[in-house]
């Protein structure tokens, strides 16, 4: 397996749905391009794609950069090499998608944001996770993991319960939304209600521009590959589970002795010895 590399492509993909047709042409070019010797000057690229240099600037700003110059510097410095050898085409397809998800997660993640989120979780009186379908299953997994560390957390996937739950939400509550596509209306509505009730709200999605400050306080971007939401080759839960594991590790560091005590107690309730369990993997 190859190393993990940073790339600008996940950033482009995370805003793709909010781009204009001409900006999508620009995005498609940079996502598919493999020629590292190309002249990336704005004049040359604009000529190749048949767009204006002003369009390149607008595209770059939508990707979160100050302009095209900053975007292209980032793009050129973060190219991912494709040098993995696989034993079969089936293994190649699946593991290639896995490797893409890992690389894109590494490229998208912001350590300060994850640390801030883990700290907010640790001090929350209540935590709710909203999700539908595969995102709902990932929400349940997150609930089961963090509950064992003493966090009062609940996963909700029922539409009616999700919408009514806002009566239990206040400023001491953290509400998390899981939506790969970012367009599940019931999740968006429930998150909007929670935000209006002064809860600390965070959306995990691959399409961060689909969510604004009226819906949530902040967005944690999630990695994606083509047709991920359909689950055609790998589980749509995978990128959500990866980011959950990263947050879990940061969360463990906040008041670690207390978390460790809760974890041991949860193992004891299941008749599992922590030391014996850990020794299996040494």
Automatic annotation (TrEMBL):
PROSITE patterns: HTH_RPIR, SIS
Coiled-coil stretches: none
Any one GO BP annotation for this protein: carbohydrate derivative metabolic process
Domain HTH rpiR-type: 6-82
Name used for this protein in its record: MurR/RpiR family transcriptional regulator
UniProt keyword terms in alphabetical order: DNA-binding, Transcription, Transcription regulation
Highest taxon listed in the record's lineage: Bacteria
């Amino acid at each position: 397996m190859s190393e993990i590399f940073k790339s600008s492509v996940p950033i482009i993909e995370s805003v793709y749905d909010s781009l204009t047709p001409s900006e999508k042409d620009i995005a498609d070019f940079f996502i598919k391009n493999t020629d590292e010797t190309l002249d990336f000057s704005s004049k040359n690229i604009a000529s190749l794609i048949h767009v204006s240099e002003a369009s390149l600037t607008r595209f770059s700003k939508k990707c979160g950069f100050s302009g095209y110059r900053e975007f292209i510097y980032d793009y050129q410095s973060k190219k991912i090499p494709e040098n993995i050898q696989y034993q079969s085409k089936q293994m190649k397809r699946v593991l290639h998608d896995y490797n893409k998800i890992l690389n894109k997660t590494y490229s998208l993640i912001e350590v300060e944001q994850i640390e801030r989120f883990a700290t907010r979780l640790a001090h929350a009186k209540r935590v709710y996770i909203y999700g539908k379908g595969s995102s709902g299953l990932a929400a349940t997994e997150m609930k089961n993991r963090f509950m064992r560390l003493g966090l009062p957390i609940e996963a909700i996937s029922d539409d009616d319960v999700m919408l009514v739950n806002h009566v239990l939400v206040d400023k001491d509550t953290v509400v998390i939304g899981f939506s790969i596509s970012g367009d599940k209306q019931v999740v968006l509505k429930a998150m909007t209600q929670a935000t209006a009730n002064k809860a600390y709200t965070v959306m995990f999605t691959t399409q961060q521009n689909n969510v604004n400050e009226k819906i949530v306080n902040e967005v944690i971007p999630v990695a994606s590959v083509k047709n991920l939401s359909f689950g055609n080759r790998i589980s749509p839960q995978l990128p959500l589970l990866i980011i959950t594991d990263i947050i879990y590790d940061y969360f463990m560091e906040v008041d670690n002795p207390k978390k460790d005590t809760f974890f041991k107690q949860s193992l004891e309730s299941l008749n599992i010895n922590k030391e014996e369990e850990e020794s299996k993997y040494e």
